[in-house]
């Protein structure tokens, strides 16, 4: 049986830079914790791959974080990997607290007055049985317009602003009218952690009155709750380290831009 040491790091992973949006909230909520972030950019995007591929990558990264970093908990900062692999990871590591992310449909129902809710996510997330079950659990409470956004995570991952804006414009127009009138979508759920970094473009497209829901903050609160008994006892700021299976310079630029951290980035060992 593994012992939980409160000073050990919390592992966080995503297919790439998207999970930094979750890490940002985790650092705000848990400033004294140490985090180790793995971006699997060499294998991104996950959202248009089959489940087997995403499960294999999620298992390999989790095993690495446990053996190399002896993490005390894991946050899967990726909707696609959560949908495909969280149940398998929990079965394989029954004593490791594992927190996943899922599209914020329940908070969206609470926020929506028109009861028409847009959901942007990867093809993988939307076709998962986890998503189908989540939708079924809210049957009759709202109408959900689910939009698979092929290519958008890739554009955000590569910081391709022109493509990001073009894809956001296309997918928002596919979903129908946004606004606060009856029949309009008044709440937009970002069901992929990469999309948080397209938030400004999406806000311009849907207008100021539409609620845009991310998952970072609720996941950070949930992590605090799950780890209540083994939070760090230190009083100073915790550390963050970063590893990637892609180009370190790319992750480094994203970390600097989104977290304002000059932290070094290492190659993920092959
Ligand atoms: N950021 C991920 C998610 O939340 C995956 C994006 C991708 O790799 O396709 O779904």
Short descriptors:
about 270 residues, alpha/beta, 6-stranded parallel sheet, 4-stranded parallel sheet, 10 strands, about 45% helix, binds D-glutamic acid
Strand adjacency order, main sheet:
4-3-1-2-9-10
Give the C-alpha Rg: 18 Å
Poorly predicted segments: none
The best one-word shape is: globular
Average pLDDT, all residues: 96
N- to C-terminal distance: 27 Å
In this entry the ligands are: D-glutamic acid
Main sheet record: 6 strands, parallel
Beta strand %: 15-25%
SSE string: EHEHEHEHEHHEHHEHEHEHE
Q: What's a quick, concise take on this entry?
A:
With 270 residues, the chain is α/β, with parallel strands linked by helices. It contains eleven helices and ten strands. A six-stranded parallel β-sheet has the order 4-3-1-2-9-10, sandwiched between helices.
């Amino acid at each position: 049986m593994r012992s939980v040491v409160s000073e050990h790091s919390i592992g966080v992973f995503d297919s790439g830079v998207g999970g930094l949006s979750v890490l940002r909230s985790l650092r705000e909520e848990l400033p004294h914790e140490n985090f180790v972030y793995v971006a699997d950019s060499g294998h991104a995007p996950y959202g248009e791959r089959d489940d087997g591929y995403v499960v294999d990558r999620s298992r390999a990264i989790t095993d690495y974080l446990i053996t190399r970093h002896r993490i005390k908990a894991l946050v899967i900062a990726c909707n696609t990997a959560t949908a495909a692999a969280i149940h398998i990871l929990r079965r394989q590591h029954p004593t490791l607290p594992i927190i996943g992310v899922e599209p914020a449909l329940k908070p969206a129902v609470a926020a929506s007055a028109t009861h028409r809710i847009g959901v942007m996510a990867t093809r993988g997330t939307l076709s998962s049985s986890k998503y189908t079950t989540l939708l079924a659990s809210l049957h009759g409470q709202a109408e959900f317009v689910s939009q698979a956004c092929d290519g958008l995570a890739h554009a955000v991952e590569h910081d391709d602003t022109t493509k990001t804006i073009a894809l956001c414009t296309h997918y928002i127009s596919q979903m129908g009218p946004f606004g606060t009138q009856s029949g309009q979508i008044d709440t937009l759920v970002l069901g992929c952690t990469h999309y948080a970094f397209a938030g400004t473009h999406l806000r311009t497209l849907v207008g100021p009155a539409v609620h845009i829901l991310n998952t970072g903050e609720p996941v950070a609160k949930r992590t605090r709750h799950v780890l209540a008994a083994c939070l760090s006892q230190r009083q100073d700021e915790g550390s963050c380290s970063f590893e990637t299976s892609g180009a370190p310079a790319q992750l480094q630029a994203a970390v600097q831009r989104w977290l304002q951290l000059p932290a070094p980035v290492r190659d993920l060992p092959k």
